[in-house]
């Protein structure tokens, strides 16, 4: 499944997510660092609004963070959610792209 992240004032970023991976795991694999804290579905730091697509929760997630706002179908916790279709989400916090520098440049300082 393809996951696309949106955040106000930033270009979108997209990456692939395997059916058995959470969005957080797939993002890390793609070099995208998301705003997270507990990574257990309990703190809401990774909460995002679903613009398009659907998710399921193979691991427990707090309904507290999913029920706020305009309805539980509109929000997801990226640390626990696994997409069941192509997914577009709007994040509350900006993400970072891991710098992809050649090892020689990193070692030379």
From TrEMBL:
Domain 2Fe-2S ferredoxin-type: 1-95
Alphabetical keyword list: 2Fe-2S, Electron transport, Iron, Iron-sulfur, Metal-binding, Transport
Presence of keyword Transport: yes
Xref: CDD domains: fer2 (cd00207)
Classification via InterPro entries: 2Fe-2S_ferredoxin-like_sf, 2Fe-2S_ferredoxin-type, 2Fe2S_fd_BS, Beta-grasp_dom_sf
PROSITE patterns: 2FE2S_FER_1, 2FE2S_FER_2
Cofactor(s) needed for function: [2Fe-2S] cluster
A Gene Ontology molecular function term of the record: 2 iron, 2 sulfur cluster binding
PANTHER family (alphabetical): FERREDOXIN (PTHR43112), FERREDOXIN-2, CHLOROPLASTIC (PTHR43112:SF3)
UniProt record similarity statement: Belongs to the 2Fe2S plant-type ferredoxin family.
Protein's UniProt name: 2Fe-2S ferredoxin-type domain-containing protein
Species this protein is from: Immundisolibacter cernigliae
């Amino acid at each position: 499944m393809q996951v696309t992240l949106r955040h106000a004032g930033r270009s979108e970023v997209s990456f692939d997510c395997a059916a058995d991976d959470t969005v957080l795991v797939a993002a890390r694999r793609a070099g995208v660092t998301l705003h997270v804290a507990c990574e257990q579905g309990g703190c809401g730091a990774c909460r995002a609004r679903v613009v398009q697509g659907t998710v399921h929760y193979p691991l427990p997630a707090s309904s507290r963070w999913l029920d706020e706002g305009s309805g539980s179908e509109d929000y997801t916790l990226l640390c626990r959610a696994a997409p069941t279709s192509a997914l577009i989400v709007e994040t509350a916090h900006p993400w970072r792209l891991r710098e992809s520098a050649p090892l020689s440049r990193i070692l030379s300082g």
